[in-house]
Write a structure and sequence with these properties.
This is Malate dehydrogenase. This protein has about 270 residues and is of the alpha+beta class. The protein has helices spanning about 5-15, 30-55, 120-125, 130-140, and strands at about 85-100, 110-120, 155-165, 165-175, 180-190, 210-215, 220-230, 245-260. Helix content is about 20%, strand content about 30%.
């Protein structure tokens, strides 16, 4: 199938799905104009890419190893020489936090995350500018129990949560549900999201970009996981008015890099 046909189908499904499945959230957001702007930018760029693909002499090559990962304003350390991109996924879910009871001046503490993952490897390889707009778009739609990423029909490719207090876990699968391995990792480095990063539904700042290093019992050859292109997810600065546990919706792009060499022993490092 030509790539232009795939993109055209994506646009058609997105447009028809946007009003009803999943629901667009305009009632609870603080800035509806920002929501409409994010959606407009995404759909306009998607339509442009569809038209461009139609006039190309041959379809673009969907080779994820050739994809170029974006850099934060203060760059994170690069993957070691010889490591290659194995998989790219959009994550959509919540960052979770706790607050001390009766201490309004305390700062919320990170308590893990929960997100569904959607396969964006081909988009990363061919249309990276479109990929960077997907988290902002996806965050404007309500979370759904159905396997749907906002107005995008990207295929489900796994789930992300914490298997321990400070161990980020990724269960990866292909678009057909076939097991693609398990990834256990801990934070190695972090960088603030760009000032232009998309805010959340209630104007929450974007969570930092991260470099996560894998450790045992990871299966396969994944060595690094990068969380980039984040949207929303940050907690308020203090616990004033907050419950003891709460969630903040976020979206991001996760880049999985593989390389030869032994996986490190478990090191229960910092939070995701």
């Amino acid at each position: 199938m030509r790539f232009s046909t795939i993109l055209a189908s994506t646009l058609a499904v997105a447009v028809s799905a946007a009003p009803t499945f999943p629901q667009l959230n305009l009632k609870e957001v603080l800035n509806p104009d920002d929501t409409l702007s994010s959606l407009s930018e995404y759909f306009n760029l998607l339509a442009t890419r569809v038209q461009l693909a139609k006039v190309q002499s041959k379809p673009p090559t969907c080779d994820v190893t050739q994809a170029r990962m974006p850099q934060a304003p203060v760059p994170l350390p690069s993957p070691p020489e010889g490591h290659k991109v194995k998989h790219v996924a959009v994550g959509r879910g919540t960052q979770n936090y706790t607050c001390e009871a009766d201490n309004k001046d305390a700062k919320p503490e990170a308590a893990g995350a929960l997100a569904h993952l959607y396969d964006a490897s081909c988009i990363a390889a061919v249309y990276p500018d479109l990929l960077e707009r997907i988290p902002a778009m996806a965050l404007r739609f309500n979370l759904s129990d159905e396997a749907q990423l906002g107005a995008s029909p990207l295929s489900p490719t796994g789930i992300h949560y914490f298997s321990g207090p400070k161990t980020a876990y990724f269960k990866l699968a292909d678009g057909k549900g076939h097991d693609q391995g398990e990834v256990y990792c801990a934070k190695e480095d972090a960088s603030d999201a760009p000032l232009t990063a998309a805010v959340g539904q209630k104007d929450e700042k974007a969570v930092p970009w991260l470099l996560l290093k894998t450790h045992e019992p990871t299966t396969g050859k994944i060595q690094e996981v990068y969380r980039v292109s984040t949207a929303g997810g940050s907690p308020p600065t203090t616990c004033e008015g907050m419950p003891e546990t709460f969630e903040v919706e976020y979206a991001s792009v996760y880049w999985f890099w593989e390389g030869d060499g032994e996986i490190a022993e478990e090191d229960d490092g910092a939070d995701d």
